Amino acid sequence: MWLFKDRRDAGQQLASLVEEKVSGENVIILGLPRGGVQVALEVAKALGCPLDVFLVRKLGVPGQEELAMGAVASGGIRVLNKQVIEALNIDESTIEETTLREMEELERRAKVYRGDVPPPDLKGKTVVLVDDGIATGASMKAVIEALKQRGPERIVVAVPLASEDSLYILGKEADEIICIETPEPFYGVGVWYDSFPQNTDTEVCNWLKEIDYR
Question: ∠ CA(81), CA(85), CA(86), 5° rounding?
Fold first, then answer.
């Protein structure tokens, strides 16, 4: 049984919760591409806040790409899941090759989404990080670590659903976590959506254009 019709529905439901806990003029919504941006758009609309993106790429285990052995984020930040790496005996060369490939893709997307526009100044701001769901927490942890280097006053993670394990991990990293559902067993993010299509770069760019995020 699905919990959300689609990402737009999830974003609208999430926006109601975020509105109750986040306020003020110094707030910016950051969506994690690709799917997280559509969810973030609904939150930004509801709060009347600027919308932008923060880039992160999962480091998938070769042959089991849905399983994260870590993640890389804007600013050259890399977070590794040592438990997965040790359990599967993944060698250093595989980790480095995967990291290089995903960093190249991250840079490509940055050019597509941002062009020549510099990243927003986050110093002293409340940053609301939005994704369409969290399975392991590796990607979001990488984002939080990267964001802390940009000097925000507060980091809030807002998602429609997440695994209980990931919330435990991220609870030590973020100032606050807003989450609607924590289904167990979790299975995966897409399982809990009636419609969960792969989004395109063009869609992300169009969502960003709906709000004057620059």
Answer: 115
Two structure tokens written together for 166: 């990931």
Complete DSSP assignment for 135-203? SSSHHHHHHHHHHHTT--SEEEEEEEEB-HHHHHHHTTTSSEEEEEE--SS---SGGGBS--PPP-HHH
pTM of the model: 0.87
Q: How far apart are CA 16 and CA 13, in angstroms?
A: 6
- In the chain, the domains with their CATH numbers are 7-55+121-209 (3.40.50.2020), 58-112 (3.30.1310)
What whole-number distance in Å separates Cα of residue 49 and Cα of residue 83? 38
Largest CA distance in the chain: 48
pLDDT tens-place string over residues 24-67: 889 999 999 999 999 999 999 999 999 999 988 889 899 988 78
What is the spatial distance between Cα 137 and Cα 82, in angstroms, rounded to a whole number? 13
